[in-house]
Write a structure and sequence with these properties.
Elements (H helix, E strand, L loop, with lengths): L24 E7 L18 H9 L1 E3 L2 E2 L5 H10 L3 H4 L10 H4 L3 H7 L3 E6 L16 E4 L6 H11 L5 E6 L6 H5 L33 H7 L13 H32 L5 E7 L18 H4 L3 E4 L8 E3 L3 E2 L4 H9 L13 H6 L6 E7 L7 E7 L2 E6 L6 E5 L17 H18 L3 H4 L6
Parallel strand pairs: 1-6, 1-7, 2-9, 3-10, 4-5, 4-6
Antiparallel strand pairs: 2-8, 7-8, 11-12, 12-13, 13-14
Length: 448
């Protein structure tokens, strides 16, 4: 059985429900470079996101969702292939998918399961826009936020009969990169603050913490184009934070157009709506901008899952999710698409639907190939976050996420936490053995 929405004329015309549809539709809304806390529904008073808040009010908001790697291309490749970047070799933005993966993406799987698959906006695996008809998707709008929501609304009003999988992939707040370099922001304008006093204050973790990894300061000085904030004053950082939140609000307004159409057609009834981002931005925490580092602001990303019928609306889950490699098994779970062997993610459907706890640990990796090639990993457990970089002083860190989400006190320098450090280090060792194509080299970086 299918739902059919015939084209109707008139501004107030509403679609007519013709029949029931057994499998849920999927709408995947994604921003670029948005931290989990950059939403008013997350308790942030410096940004106003009424449309993200609408999704949270109608769905389950995950507070412990993380990227696979804090860089657009690798993170997106992990989403659509189900492989970590160190497994697929997708460690940089401009690396194309190997042929064996090009025809085995989540779009291909869902299309083969009988869904109409449409993609609008940023792709970046590795082309900036998705080639029409490839990876299982029809391209209904190239990269660029202007007109993206309208293209998605048009698709929802005129889509073929049967279940559908729509991806709406926005670019902002990624334009904070151009703002930091003093360049024009191509996908949204930023209204200037009347005075400095209208800008947000500095974050509580603005200072570079004692015993923070020294290699991060080294990396910051390697590429001025990426890190022009190296000479920022506190006032500059406040203006940066103002601009970042205005870009979040700009993309929120665009998302609102899609949510309005979901309301008009009452697609809540039989649609899974997922909202997330590929990675975050430092946004002044530890005086960091951009991504790549393993700071919480960079790796903890928004994840909201709206279930059919608004089941569990307004709930908040602390389950650990690697939203990149967990995306494919989740979509396959909902659509009935056949999940390929060899993928290592887990469906977050039971976390959203049944309130089940997530895995005991998740791992994020990073690689500074754009500068000096520093590599690093994060192991996140229920209470702790363990971070390891391959070089520099204080390259091993442990933070208590219950009391120190701002990562200001490195517990790894205290002997009383040695057993906890060792436990997380062993998790990382096993993970590298199972998932890294470069295991012999990466294992050498683990402390004894």
């Amino acid at each position: 059985m299918n739902i059919k929405f015939p084209i109707m004329t008139g501004a107030l015309a509403l679609p007519v429900m013709m029949a029931a549809q057994s499998r849920p539709n999927i709408i995947y809304i994604m921003t670029d470079q948005q931290s989990a806390t950059a939403m008013s529904c997350a308790g942030n008073p410096d940004v106003h996101t009424p449309n993200m808040d609408r999704l949270a009010a109608n769905g389950v908001r995950f507070t412990n969702a993380y990227t696979a790697m804090p860089l657009s291309g690798p993170a997106r490749a992990a989403m659509f292939t189900g492989y970590m970047p160190s497994e697929s070799g997708m460690l940089e933005n401009e690396v194309p998918l190997v042929d064996s993966l090009r025809h085995n993406t989540v779009g291909t799987l869902v299309k083969n399961a009988g869904y109409d698959c449409a993609y609008a906006g940023k792709w970046h695996v590795n082309t900036i826009s998705i080639p029409d008809g490839e990876f299982g998707f029809r391209n209904i709008k190239d990269n660029g936020d202007q007109g993206l929501a309208e293209a998605c609304v048009d698709y929802l009003r005129n889509r073929p009969e049967g279940p559908f999988f729509l991806v709406a992939s926005f670019t902002n707040p990624h334009n904070i990169c151009e703002f930091a370099r003093g360049q024009r922001t191509p996908h949204a304008s930023i209204p200037g603050p009347a005075t400095l006093e209208d800008c947000p204050n500095l974050p509580e973790n603005f200072a570079v913490a004692p015993y923070d990894a020294s290699v991060l300061q080294f990396e910051k000085h390697q590429n001025y184009s990426l890190y022009p904030t190296v000479s920022y004053t506190p006032d500059d950082w406040r203006r940066f934070r103002y601009a970042y939140y205005r870009l979040v609000e700009a993309v929120d307004a665009e998302i609102g157009k899609i949510v309005d159409e979901i309301d008009r057609q009452n697609l809540w009834k039989n649609t899974v709506i997922v909202f997330t981002s590929d990675h975050g931005d430092g946004n002044g925490a530890h005086q960091w901008n951009q991504k790549t580092a393993l700071y919480e602001e960079v790796n903890n990303i928004p994840l909201i899952v709206c279930l059919p019928g608004k089941k569990n609306a307004g709930e908040v889950s602390e389950a650990l999710v690697n939203n990149c490699i967990d995306f494919m098994p989740s979509i396959c779970d909902w659509t009935g698409a056949e999940m390929p062997a060899g993928r290592n993610g887990a469906s977050f459907r039971p976390y959203a639907e049944k309130g089940m706890e997530g895995p005991e640990y998740i791992v994020t990796e990073t690689n500074f190939l754009q500068t000096s090639g520093t590599v690093g990993w994060m192991v996140r457990s229920a209470q702790y976050k363990y971070v390891l970089y391959d070089k520099g002083q204080y390259r091993e860190m442990l933070y208590d996420m219950a009391s120190d989400r701002g990562e200001m006190v490195n517990l790894a320098v205290e002997s009383r936490y040695a057993d906890i450090v060792k436990e997380h280090r062993e998790v990382l060792r096993k993970w590298i053995l199972e998932h890294s194509r470069f295991k012999s080299r990466h294992l050498r970086f683990l402390p004894e």
